[in-house]
Amino acid sequence: MTAPLFDDQPGAVICRAYGSMSRAAVPSKHGTYCAVLDLAPLPAQQESDHATVLRGAAVDVGDRWAFFDDLATAASFARAGRMSNLTPSWDLFEAAQVRAYCPEHGGEELALLLGRQVYERTELRTLANQFAATAAETLSWSS
């Protein structure tokens, strides 16, 4: 299945486009995802009058999802979580977050689209090291 492109369907809303394929509605920082589903290939990052698609990564934190605009940041979050005393899965996925206004429900709706799962230790370590190097560089500039 491919992702609906909202530019082609100005009346399309997330609840109708993705809702019937959802794992479950789950809360996020920006609201509730009305759909969380596996979808390959992920749509490209885009912004239109009808919808916004942000590319990044998502981490499964039990019954919640954490979305990041950067895979390395998400990998570091997942790696730190696995080292904690918390017991969620901490599964890491390439992802896209789709946001669009729904006139039926009178508000913005979100869908989380999951792509490839990142689980190979070497790749996770490389991403975490990339994040650490970037974070160190950022900190040295802000001092």
Structure description:
The chain has 143 residues and is an alpha+beta fold. It has one domain. It is built from three helices and seven strands. Strands 1, 2, 3, 4, 5, 6 and 7 form a seven-stranded mixed β-sheet that branches. Strand 3 and strand 4 form a beta hairpin. Helix 2 packs across helix 3. The radius of gyration is 16 Å and the shape is globular. The chain starts with 13 loop residues before the first helix and ends with a helix. The model has no long low-confidence stretch (mean pLDDT 79).
Summarize the structure.
By secondary structure, this protein is an alpha+beta fold. It contains three helices and seven strands; from the N terminus they run αβββββαββα.
Largest sheet: 7 strands, mixed
Rounded radius of gyration (Å) = 16 Å
What is the terminal separation in angstroms?
Answer: 48 Å
What average pLDDT do the residues reach?
79
Strand content: 35-45%
List keywords for this structure.
globular; seven-stranded mixed β-sheet; 3 helices; 27% helix; alpha+beta; 143 residues; 7 strands
Set down the secondary structure blueprint:
Blueprint: H1 14-17, E1 26-28, E2 31-38, E3 46-47, E4 52-61, E5 64-68, H2 71-82, E6 92-102, E7 107-118, H3 121-142
Parallel strand pairs: 2-7
Antiparallel strand pairs: 1-2, 3-4, 4-5, 4-6, 6-7
